[in-house]
Amino acid sequence: MDAKFIKLLLLGGAARFYFCRTSLGTVIGNRVEFATPLNSHKRMQEGIFLLQNGIDPYQGDVVHETPLILSALSGLFRNFPQFLPVFYILLDIFTAALLYMMAQRFVRKKQDQQNVETKEYATDTTELQFSGSDKMDIPELVIVAYLFNPLTVLSCVGMTSTVFSNLFLAAFLYCLTKGLLLPCLLILAFETVRSFYPVVLLAPLLLTFSGRSIRSGFLISLLFAACCLVISVANFFVLNSWNFLDGTLGFIFYFRDLQPNIGLFWYFFTEMFEHFRIMFLITFQLNATVLYLLPLSIKLRREPLLLATILVALMAVFRAYPSLGDVGFYLALLPLWKRCWKFMAHGFVVFTFFIVTLSMMGVLWHLWIYAGSANANFYFGATLAFSTGQIFLITDLLFAHVKRDFCLFNGQKILIDGEEAKIVLK
Amino acid sequence: MGLLSDPSISTQSKLVDGLARHVRKVCLVLYVAGVVWFFCLALPEFNHGTYLSENALSPGLVYPEIRVDANRLAIQLLEELHRERTNHVSTTPHAWIAAKMNEFGLETHTHNYTLRYPFGGGKEYHGKNVYGILRAPRIASTEGIVFTAPYRAASSVHTDISPSVPLLLAFADFARRKNYWAKDLIFLVTEQEQLGMQAWLEAYHDGDRVPDANRTYLRPGNLPARAGSLQAALNIEVQDLEIDYVDVRIEGLNGKLPNLDMFNLVQRIMAREGIASGYKQAPRKKRRHSQSVYEQNLRGMLSMLASQASGVPTGNHGLFHRYRIDALTIAAARRQTHATLKGNPGSAAVPLLKAIEGISRSLNNLLERFHQSFFFYVIVNNDRYISIGDYMPALVALVACAFVKAYLKWATLPSASEMEAAAAAASAAGSESELPSPGEAEPDEPFDLPYGSVLIYLVATLAIGYLCNVLPLQQYFLEIPMGAAPLTTSVLSFLSLIGFILPFVVVLPPGGLELLHVAFLLIYGCAMIAIGLLNFALGFFVAVLTVPLVISLETSEENTKSSFRNSIRLLTLILNPMMIVYVIVLAMTFYQFPELPMQKIMLRAATAAMDASAYGLIDSVIYGNFLYFVVSTVLLPLWILCWTLALSKRRDYADYLDFDEAPSPQPPAPPAQRQAKLKRN
Question: What segment(s) does the record annotate as region Disordered (chain B) (predicted)?
Fold first, then answer.
């Protein structure tokens, strides 16, 4: 814990606190890009109010937060509503701190691994290897990317519950690097029951903890299922009803709310004939979960954290109700792969994509909803381009990693017949 | 798939390097392509004939039933109104209008509003609108159509359009007798030009909202009666009952347009009644065969875009667009030539009344809001249009210059070795010993670009722009007993002066200029896209003017002649937003008063430009016109960045200044500089 780390945390907190005191919070709380049906602050308030009045929040179609979170926060919401922004800010800062520690641990591990393998590396690859200063630089970059990314700042200012999701994911990644199996399982199970998609993170977990043995993998999976069951039962006891399952997981899976967001679901499902709905639901949900899981797990079996990063990113693109807060979270994980950046060819293009599409989203939303002259197609065009940009980023990261891995052992300058070699992927 | 999975190991692409060497040529090609595409749009092959796509409108399906008795009523009312006008020279005869509406059996109400004028110590103006509702016999009051006529007092400086009120009342009397209305009809007479209309619309839509006393300048009050959600509106401005032609005006606030179907509908009905009507219709002069079709089309396009660009509505209809109500104005001009065309005054207004009846019956058929046809279009001719898909490529090609250049700049940003060489050269040449730290990591480390200082610089310039928007409305400035125009201009010119000085005071660390250049290009591109989507005309004109400068800007000192650099600096100075506004106003003044001596014209243009900047500000706070915001908060910061890049002051020889952060602009005392700002005349 050095002074700079504390300073950064304080600065990030101060920035959030400043924006909380402006009217920005309500604006962001109403923007579809940040507040989805799943994470909006308004719905959380509604759920807590219903819970306090002894009404099952899940009978209506507004609340999609788990009962445990609702009951845990109900005291805070009722008694100290003026401190809520501070609470959210503290959680966000805690997330940043967890990411920082996770990054430190990760770099240390990498360096250890490097020390073992160092003889096998090619000669001209020092810039691909983790250097001494990375131990400080990478965690710092991670924390800066999390604390000062406008997307996470605004998501926190708007008090979306993405703040919780990010905290849980960060805690999961931290426990994963630290090798704490049980907390890892519990956090993952909790987040899975909350928002379903993190179930894919079981893959990096298995890769980390089970080693090569299928039996222990099977055992861990069983344990995970048990954890999920325990948490569901705990949720059950809050209201003594299973309604919450349909209100949270069912709501996510069946995609009942067609409110526009930055994802790909809403447009297709508004356009679709009703009798194809089930088929496309399954297709879309498969795409968001298991489609990339197996090939990526096989390819990245030696890099569970990279697998986790990419899965989190894919989740942010393909999930049913994505928000910009999710995007901000995985962007903060990119500095972990700083040594691959050399091979990331599309960084600038992706950045341009991001700022152009984000500014267009605001304009087109205005034209569609307020001015009434544009329509849903315009807005969806912008979000589609945004998703495309994200896909570019993810594939770029993957290829950069593959190239780095190759070059690390084979050298960066490979000439065949006097011409520069190309890697053929087969 | 090659795009995503480029198999080469090296990160340097030959294509990019090659292109980077010819970045100007590439951009120039794009620029020329965009402009050429725009000019091509006037060719008949590139635009389409208009058609009605909303079938519910079915224009002209019913025979007009309005007869000559309505015309007689209009004439009689006009005579009465003229008598009233002798008593009410500078006010509206509210009582007479309300009495007539009551007499015709309309549900008549009046609406009061107050304008709290912020400048010059603050004054209050009061106004009053009169409106009558004809409840639909066929349905509950869920939807409505508005017919409005602006009333101008006899003392007004504008053209007399008082016959609109009798025409409106005569039509109201006719409509009262019919039982087929499926929508409530509102007949509204507003005063004080657009202010009354804006107040009425605000009162109609959020009259029950409690206004924030400090922020709102127009207090619309509330309405005693409403008529459901408004579907469409027709604004009538008639100079005389005997008309020559009808000019259909469509441009609304911020360049928004009504649905193309509405325009087509009006054109069809007018054609059926045999009225010469059209977009930007002008009195028929001597036939001039010199203009080819292409030239006519191009003139039509450009004049439409020019009137759209300012964002000021061309009539009261333009304010409806903000509430998603499609509206347009039919402005009828007085018949000039009595000698050849001897019309019968007893039935002179019948065609126009029939047209209004036809339009209202078509609107009455609407099952839902206008949504079928285009909202984004450019009219080239009365029956030809260009849709958004056809005109957007022109703007996209212009904006693409910025992005292409940004990418190529980024790809060729100075690498570590070059930077070190430059640093070594600088330290050898200058007396100063050391450079600030960022470069001195390990030798293999890529050179760290000064992201932080560039970011701070960007924020500082944006803050200057933001202050332009906020500062003139601060309480302590408003209390100064000074007119709106001098106040706004002095604040604006002070802030642009700060922007002018900023690059002299703050010198970015090495690599900062190149990074700033990339950032500038990206921000410029995004801003142009956003402006172009909201108001194509404004975005396109700004892009056409500024893209050449953006292309020619260069920060590197090698292989550019100093004369070229100086001419770019001069160009940047000329393209200052305030200068552009002044030049536009100057051109308009010259056009209007060609007989005046040059000196006088320049002086007059200066005061006009100052007034224009104040109008822009008032427009933005009362009507929500964003032109002022765009010029002060988007274009001015961009200009400051441009100016910084054109100057290219480097740390090498100005090291000793050691200003790392930009000074935040303090609230200024009223300075003496005067410069012109913001157009709108």
Answer: 660-681
